[in-house]
From TrEMBL:
Keywords: Cell membrane, Membrane, Transmembrane, Transmembrane helix. Pfam families: RDD (PF06271). InterPro entries: Pra-immunoreactive, RDD. This is RDD family protein. The chain crosses the membrane at residues 29-56, 62-81, 116-136. Its main location: membrane. It comes from Mesorhizobium retamae. It is found in: Cell membrane. It is a multi-pass membrane protein. Residues 26-147 form the RDD domain.
């Protein structure tokens, strides 16, 4: 239980309120779709830069195309999910954020590891990653359980 003692009274955190998880699974799906669109749009200017770099380097720069999308995605996650808001643009649009159960803020590395575990888990264990969220408290997915994080609503 996330509880703090303030002036002799026990103060519970918003993460203990079950209303903070109402509709979170659906909101996570739509946030993921929005974030994929944002990463896709952010990839376009970087692709243009790599194309020009490839011409300048007589084709050597074009090898960067192989890491373009993952690099853009990692930078996006690091700068949004690892920020003070603890939410990507899609998560902000859907009114959710990523929190640690111990109450400390999410840093950039934790945000990237969270996303990499999400992607790897979906490649390897797709049904398990999604099924775990149906049976866990706070609607946590497999990578949330591994990292001690939870996605909650910002409006509750």
């Amino acid at each position: 239980m996330n509880a703090r003692v303030l002036d002799g009274e026990i103060m519970t955190s918003k993460l203990d309120d079950v209303r903070a998880y109402d509709g979170v699974r659906t909101r996570r799906v739509f946030a993921c779709i929005i974030d994929y669109l944002v990463v896709g749009l952010l990839t376009i200017p970087f692709a243009i830069v790599i194309f020009v770099l490839g011409i300048i380097t007589l084709g050597l720069g074009w090898m960067l195309f192989s890491i373009l999308v993952p690099a853009v995605a990692v930078l996006y996650i690091w700068n949004t999910l690892g920020s003070r808001d603890q939410a990507t643009l899609g998560m902000k649009a859907m009114g959710i954020r990523l929190d640690r159960l111990d109450g400390t803020p999410i840093d950039g590395m934790t945000a990237v590891v969270h996303s990499v575990l999400f992607w790897a888990g979906n490649v390897i264990l797709t049904p398990l990653v999604l099924l775990v969220a149906l049976f866990t408290d706070r609607k946590r997915t497999l990578h949330d359980l591994l990292l001690g994080t939870v996605v909650s609503r910002t409006d509750r």
